[in-house]
Write a structure and sequence with these properties.
The chain is mostly helical. Helix content is 64%, strand content 2%. The protein has a domain of 272 residues. It contains 19 helices and four strands. The protein has a two-stranded antiparallel sheet. It has a two-stranded antiparallel sheet with strand order 3-4.
């Protein structure tokens, strides 16, 4: 299948997804879907709650933090006790404390950064009983937080913004589990491995070599790792492995799964606030930025590496280094951009082997805050944070009242939005400076010079954005990188999600101001352009000096080959 045919099919599929999945999720979180009530009610009784027992934003945030902390401890304990637990055909021992802390933090924050090789470090029980469980609940937490902010705009004079336990229960049983189950069946039917039978040993009679091939429950793990924008694969090479990603169809399916919920949530937003135009405006922001990043990254990877050309080697397949021959250069670029424009992080090719400007695409996609479309839930609430800043700036520029969907944007809202927008870049840049200043940090990169700096910057940007993709080339499984990576992921998650919940609570308490001649319109092309400008300016002002030291100077250094 050609690159443009792939794009066309993906656009059509996402168009239907935006309309129908978006509408369905609005019905789910409005409480209009009840076909699994017999499953919901016992859970609510166990938790001693109900949909009628709504919470203030502070109680909602408290429940979320407690749940996440318990999840962190639970995951850490399973990894530390792995050697004594069942379903361990590889006879693996306990995971070390620093790596367990990093991995637990990674999966609880929806990052799924992996400083380990899945098939050689994690037992089947660890993969299924802790890591896959978190691949369901962590995206549910992100979606719940996004819905809180949406309710902030849709409600009037409300002291409550929903019930955390009800929201994640509905998200799990009505959205994530059904879609992941159907997708898992398709992926396994295409040839992905799904077994508990352990490894298989093959003897090659031609050369006398005996090879042990790892297997495991990879197929169904792949469906939720993409649907939930998790990205943590069963195998070390992730979706470049034919046991996880067996065909070109599954490659496209994985891209659709990753983009489906983040894209559809913009329609959910429009539906719940009573203005589809506002949801479409957010979708336009997403499409313009995402399309631009796919275009220049794919174009860059379709060019040959200048050093290869200088050596007299000519190719018509672009930069094939580190690419799967099954997918090619441009489709691989589409895949990696899709994973880094969301909080997924899975890859089907080696980002470390991309041309410098090609590698700039995935890196800067994360630096924009992963809002195009971003992760499951996290993309929408971060995009709304940028929209609030855009409304405030736009109102100041043209002398109109800064309002968004009838809610006045005042000092408290702007301060919380500013905190949510800046906490990630501040964390990433401070930790990157720490890593390049210490000998233990500089020992991590495989390469020296600008590329080595890019490897450090990429890793900490990936973790700070709860993305999880790795550029490769960085030895991350060290006490230093495990600990600062875990800190990076935890701040990147809760440093944004808590201001988003606070915004939802504050906005829900406000009444709606009727539109007038002085109201700044927030669903027209001007607002779309302003929001895009805010995203690019904040990302550029914070990260341009850093990327100038890495991929940009590396690209300029290639001019010597001409």
């Amino acid at each position: 299948m050609g690159f443009f045919a792939t794009i066309l099919i993906l656009v059509i599929a996402l168009g239907f997804t935006w309309r129908y999945l978006g509408s369905y999720m609005a019905a789910v979180f409005d409480g209009r879907v009840h076909f699994l009530g017999f499953v919901e009610r016992p859970i609510y009784r166990l938790l001693k709650t109900s949909p009628e027992q709504e919470q203030t934003w502070k109680r909602y945030a408290g429940a979320m933090i407690i749940f996440s902390f318990v999840s962190l401890v639970f995951t850490y304990a399973i990894l530390r006790l792995q050697g004594s637990l069942p379903l361990n055909p590889q006879h693996l021992g306990a995971v070390g404390p620093a790596l367990s802390f990093n991995t637990a933090s990674s999966f609880v924050t929806n990052t799924n950064w992996q400083n380990y090789g899945g098939e050689t470090a994690m037992s089947y029980f660890s993969q299924m009983g802790s890591l896959t469980v978190q691949q369901f609940v962590s995206p549910a937490v992100g979606i719940a937080a996004a819905i809180v902010l949406v309710r902030g705009f849709s409600r009037r004079k409300s002291a409550t913004i929903g019930n955390f336990w009800v929201d994640i229960t509905r998200c799990l049983f009505y959205v994530l589990l059904p879609i992941a189950f159907v997708a898992g069946i398709v992926i396994v039917a295409q040839g992905a491995v799904q077994t508990l039978a352990g490894t298989v040993t093959i003897h090659d009679s031609l050369n006398g070599v005996t090879q042990t091939i790892p297997r495991g429950p990879a197929g169904f793990m792949g469906s939720i790792m993409q649907l939930g924008t998790n990205g943590g694969g069963f195998f070390n090479v992730d979706l470049a492995h034919p046991f996880e990603n067996p065909t070109a169809f599954t490659d496209l399916l994985y891209i659709w799964l990753t983009l489906s919920i983040p894209v559809a949530l913009t329609y959910t937003f429009g539906k719940m606030v009573g203005s589809i135009k506002h949801g479409a405006a957010l979708l336009a922001v997403v499409v313009i930025l995402f399309g631009s990043w796919v275009a220049f990254t794919s174009y860059s990877e379709h060019q040959n590496n200048p050093a290869v050309v200088a050596a007299g080697i000519h190719s018509t397949v672009g930069n094939a280094e580190g690419k799967e021959v099954r997918f090619g250069d441009t489709t691989s670029a589409l895949f990696n951009v899709s994973m880094t424009q969301t909080s997924d992080g899975a890859v089907d090719s080696a980002t470390d082997s991309y041309n410098p400007i090609g590698g700039l695409g995935p890196l800067t996609g994360m630096m924009l805050g992963e809002v195009t479309p971003g992760g499951t839930g996290s993309g929408l609430y971060t995009l709304l944070i940028y929209a609030i800043i855009a409304v405030f700036i736009g109102g100041l520029m043209i002398g109109r009242t800064p309002e968004y969907l009838g809610k006045k944007i005042q000092a408290r809202e702007v301060k919380l939005a500013g905190l949510g927008a800046l906490v990630m870049p501040m964390t990433v840049l401070i930790l990157t400076a720490l890593a390049v200043s210490l000998a233990v940090g500089r020992a991590g990169p495989l390469n020296a010079g600008p590329h080595g700096f890019s490897e450090i910057l990429y890793a900490l940007t990936s973790q700070g954005n709860n993305n999880g993709s790795a550029m490769a080339g960085l030895t991350g499984n060290t006490p230093f990188y495990n600990v600062i990576g875990a800190i990076d992921m935890l701040i990147g998650r809760f440093g944004i999600i808590i201001p988003a919940l606070a915004l939802g609570g504050i906005l829900a308490e406000k009444d709606v101001v009727p539109e007038g001649l002085g109201t700044f319109r927030t669903h027209n092309p001007m607002f779309v352009g302003l929001t895009i400008g805010v995203i690019l300016i904040i990302g550029g002002l914070t990260f341009f000096p850093a990327i100038s030291l890495g991929p940009i100077v590396e690209q300029l250094s290639h001019l010597r080959f001409f």
